[in-house]
Amino acid sequence: MNPTTSANDRAHDLAHDLAESAATEWSGLVNAAVLGTDRKPVPIPRPGWESLGRGSDGVDPAVELLDRVASVVTARRAGIQPAPAPAPMPAAPVDDRPICSRGAARALAEMLDGRHDQLLPEWFVLCRAGGYQPPAHLVPTLLLRGRRNPAFDLAARALIGPRAEWLAEAMPELRIRSHPKAPAVGVDPFLPPRPPSDSAAVVAAIVQTFVDRSASWAAAAQLRLAVTAIDPAWLAALILELDRAPFHSVTERSRVDLLGLAQLRSRMIAELAPPETAKRVGLWDG
Amino acid sequence: MSIRPTPEQVLSLAPDKAAAAAALPLAVPAAWSAAGCDDGAVWGHFVATSAEPYQVAIDLSDDVGGPAYRCNCPSRKTPCKHALGLLLFHAVGSVAPARRLPFAAQWLRGRSAQSAVDDSDDSSVSSAVATQDGDLTADAGDTPLGGGSRSPRADFGTPDPARQKRQLERTARMKAGLHELDNWLTDRVRAGLAAPELADPAIWDRLAARLVDAQCAGLANRVRRVAVKVGRQGPWHEHVLEEMALLHAIAVGAQRTSALPIDLADGVHAATGLTFAKDDVLQGVPSSGHWIVAGQSRTREDRITVQRTWFTVGPQPSIGMGGVPGEARPPTDTGSKWAMVLSFGAFGRELADEYEVGTTIEADLHWYPGGIRLRALVGRVEGPPAPCTAGPSPTTIARACADAGWAASAEPWLERFPMCILAVPAPRGNGRWSLTDGTGALAIDGGCRRIAELVAVSGGRPVVVMGEWSVDGLLPLTLFADGQVVGL
Fold this sequence. Notes:
The complex is a heterodimer of chains A (286) and B (488).
Chain A: H1 3-35, H2 61-78, H3 102-112, H4 120-130, H5 139-146, H6 150-160, H7 162-170, H8 199-211, H9 220-229, H10 235-243, H11 249-271, H12 278-285
Helix pairs in contact in A: 1-2, 3-11, 4-6, 5-6, 8-10, 9-11, 10-11, 11-12
Chain B: H1 7-12, H2 17-23, E1 32-37, E2 41-46, E3 54-59, E4 68-71, H3 81-91, H4 102-119, H5 123-132, H6 134-137, H7 161-191, H8 201-213, H9 217-229, H10 236-254, H11 262-272, H12 278-282, E5 287-301, E6 304-313, E7 338-346, E8 359-367, E9 376-387, H13 397-410, E10 417-429, E11 432-437, E12 440-443, H14 451-458, E13 463-470, E14 473-481, E15 484-487
Antiparallel strand pairs in B: 1-2, 2-3, 3-4, 5-6, 5-8, 6-7, 8-9, 10-11, 10-13, 11-12, 13-14, 14-15
Helix pairs in contact in B: 2-3, 5-7, 7-8, 7-10, 8-9, 9-10, 10-11
């Protein structure tokens, strides 16, 4: 054994003894405080703690007790030590895929928060196509959301990769399955809607609803679906049109909502473009 | 420069909770006509249900004695709900500068004439009075409006007897409050913590209210936090006793701060709720350099949201001391490494996201005085923030514990201390977790709701965690991993 180790051991033993002594002194004081100094005398200070207690006659025992407790608390807090380390858990399998961009992660976080979450299937598809992995800090939210939605769960786990199973086993308190449950027969897979055959006509129809003021809030759900489905090439044109659609109090709420949806979709498509084709995405905006 | 208080400062002026609650609905445009303000005052007509509107005016020009109020409503409370409501309305920035209304101008003229008469008195008597009681008047320049923006006091050398009378009154109130707190604590210890009345929230509320009256807001908030621990699971008697003993230490210390080392005295003052005027802090010697915005946390206190932003030294090691050398005490080990900037939000007013976690700013930081230097103000800022995804350089858990222990020895009542460690999460069983490295383990605060995110990001491998250490454990705030910055 080399000298440094034994010095460390001595220091460790000393710290251990001190901690034990503080714990004994502490428990005596706690007992007196719980019962009350009117009923239980303040214990005599243990060796090493005498100077902290006044111990003299004429001092209110309650004051003496509080003084001594304050001293022991200070000593204990000042002497905070790392605890012995519990057994480590196995590390997650290495995932070589690059993590998606911060912008894409923000878009996902927004949708998981409930804003425009009808775009989630498309986010999944784009993320897979780009060869990215989703940001690790959103993995628990994705898996928890999947507990009640097998189709979502299947799609999310395909995206998350091996970390899903690892997390389920590392944190049983989350009550996440290790393996996804097969969705019931006949349930639609978690996929974005197909683009309509004529997106230009759909854009024109959406714009028309703002001109004839039929884009009320009641109609917004239908319109949102259309915005989610159109060919991305037409998104820029739609955003432009929605931006300058005539103002009317009946349609304003729908307009703001659809504009937000279209902008989020366009941003998400740009952020999740595969690395080598990132430049080509810019053409859609033109 | 106009003196505009923040809403939480206005609330602290309320004589009681009822007045504060009654004032809230009055801070709306519909309640006021001809409201206006200038550099030193706010005024307006309160459009009550009665035939005559109340004429309300508040004099804000006295930054030592606090505001003065005038309202011709029949309420005997000072300030009344109308004055508070108007001040709140002003605090949210809804009162436009205007010319003084005749009634306000007349009242304010009368007040300044009065103080001019006071000023012409022989001031030697009053300065002798001021030094008699150095304990609490040392920084009584801080008023309930202490956090508001304010130009440096030019008349520092000419004490105003009326102000000093108010300072002495405040000192006396605080002393009485501290004395009462200590008596309350010893009474509880005499009766025992098992006594059923301890579990009655009302006795804690009453104590907190008394401390607010005594202008010991810091202690009142602390008492409310202790009250929450009563009857909780686990060894709550021990936790409550710890906090009661620390309250006792503050109460005893605050009654004899002149006998304490200056840093400790400053720390005790801050713990009681006396804060330092911003301008005085900003006049201190700054620490300039690159600072990483390492983490942010929020807590609710009464009706106020408190946000803590933690700064730590950035990648450039050249943190030079600016200003006049020799004037400042050498920065302490941790004091030069961490800084905490507080901001407050209330009444649905959003907290400004002034600093983005995971960025670096080049700035002057000015620490508040105290036994340990954490709370600070940002002074001059150079240029825009730059992204810093690498994060601060972490320490070992043993080193972080040593720093926290050192801080606790300087100020045992310290409630949270920053740490930045490179560590792996490990389960302790029952859904509780620790962070571990080669030097040992540190428990994660059981109140942390984002442990799953922490575990997922780590993937069972070391990750840089910035968090706040408290007696409940480490509360992780920010993770720096794989070039990503994750706020928890």
